[in-house]
Amino acid sequence: MKQSLVFIPTTKEVPSDTEAVSHQLLLRGGFIRQEMGGVFMYLPLAYRVLQKIQTIMEEEMENISCPETLMPVILPASLWKRSGRYKNYGPELFKLQDRSERELILGPTHEESYIDVVKSTWNSYKDFPKTLYQIQTKFRDELRPRFGLLRNKEFIMLDGYSFGGSQADLDYSYEQFNQAFRRIFDRSGLDYISVVADNGAMGGQESTEFQAVADIGEDDVAYVGEERSGANMEVAQGIPTFQVNEVFEEPGELTKVATPNAKTVVEVGEFFKTDLAKIVKSILYYADDKPVLVVAPGDHEINEMKLSNGLAAKELRLATHEEVQNLLGVQIGSIGPIGISEQVKVVMDPSVTHLHNFYVGANEDGYHYQNVNYDRDFTVDEQFDLININEGDLEPKTKQPYHIEQSIEIGHIFKLGTFYSEGLGATFLDQDGKEQPIIMGSYGIGVSRLIAAIVEQNNDENGIIWPKTVTPYDVHVIEINNQDETIVKTAEKLEEEITNSGHSVLLDDRDARAGVKFAESDLFGFPLRVVVGKKAQEGIVEIKERRTGEVHEIELSQVVKFIRDFYNK
């Protein structure tokens, strides 16, 4: 393919609000353009990457005997109302009406559609296990789309579904998709971690996320060991280092101390010259409009997902300054659990029981208590894990220290169980002739998100470095001078020979300076660059490997062999 005929609108300038390296490089390289916030055009180079990724996915789905389908984008709201998700999914759900005022949605995912279509056909235990999948555009009305292709209102997704008549069926399909997804990520050249995760709005029993390590990632994952087994920070449990190193202290005398201008954990810690863990913080929340005081060690952050799940709360929010003042008569920064109003439910992270003679707010502006000890000085209504782990905290089973990395969620698999089949009346007859709900699994990969994740992990100061399996073109052939007949004919002959050998070629035939061509070639990031220059008359061309920067002078007769050997490594 001649580059002069391909639409590649490169640019040196990118919007100042583009934080992600992948966003910047894909814009600069002319791979994508933004139509509106959270909605992108996939231009020729990006579309070729999409096609490569989708081909890998189709092959791996074929390997687990999972047939491909395609569901509608526009869905009846009635189906989602029956499952309960129309109300519970939240403001990210795109809602609309047709001219007959029928309520519709733009599909963010398709669990309801799949269970609804199979329930009238697969109604015996003999029909299972079965699977289906699609690769399709999805829609979610993100409040703050960001990071280019990483968080969008419109995106491309592989979503697969399994249907079974027993837990064994579900376990089998879950593992099949688990292994298929790993092969997809491996073949796409990604460095990833699989972690235990929260099911969120999907519901169900169990789920695993696949996370690509990246500095721009919106998630944090905690893992241990060389195998990097772990969990999303939303659900990771750990033993704080202060608990591991616990030293018993005789209880000191409870004393109220004036702490002027010390409100934050750090300020109070500096005032008392003590570890932040011993500054036990108390934060007021409202869970389903009921006040809850959360008590936790000062060196760990509150995990609102754990807190919400522990309270079985549909809605959770921080109390405002005014609400704290009206309910407790004190400002934020001086709240504590001692003598708290009976109107307030008090919950605490269990790790606080391993602290001795610690410090809490005195429920009086500008004062804290010192030498506080749980059970002697205050009690709580409930204890459960409600904090984020810190780097170095221990994993409970292995007792190994956690490492924490920023990451991008690239895939998620769920054991949904009967969550959707019960809501939509999808049943089958078991071996005893009894009616049972179909047992379901759901499996998703963000296809367009993979492009960004790959670029985040494969780039340098000059541009993108595509893995061999997903590169838009295998080889970039560059004519140094398109006015030189020998150079032009040699480049065109190479394009033909390389293409006939089974490798894709982009031939830069433009009338542009060599420096411009080389800079753009590095920006595009194809694995190999073949430069046809002055030595073409001697039957010699230069081949540069993008990833290593290694340069080779190769005879024309050996170019195809070199490329073949490179791609067979």
Automatic annotation (TrEMBL):
> What's the superkingdom here?
Bacteria
Alphabetic keyword roster: Aminoacyl-tRNA synthetase, ATP-binding, Cytoplasm, Ligase, Nucleotide-binding, Protein biosynthesis
**GO cellular component terms attached to this protein's record:** cytosol
Tell me which stretches of the chain form a coiled coil.
none
Q: Which reaction does it catalyse?
A: tRNA(Pro) + L-proline + ATP = L-prolyl-tRNA(Pro) + AMP + diphosphate
Family of the protein in this entry = Belongs to the class-II aminoacyl-tRNA synthetase family. ProS type 1 subfamily.
On assembly, the entry states: Homodimer.
Q: What does this protein do?
A: Catalyzes the attachment of proline to tRNA(Pro) in a two-step reaction: proline is first activated by ATP to form Pro-AMP and then transferred to the acceptor end of tRNA(Pro). As ProRS can inadvertently accommodate and process non-cognate amino acids such as alanine and cysteine, to avoid such errors it has two additional distinct editing activities against alanine. One activity is designated as 'pretransfer' editing and involves the tRNA(Pro)-independent hydrolysis of activated Ala-AMP.
The molecule here is called Proline--tRNA ligase
Provide the species name: Xylocopilactobacillus apicola
Instruction: State the encoding gene.
Output: proS
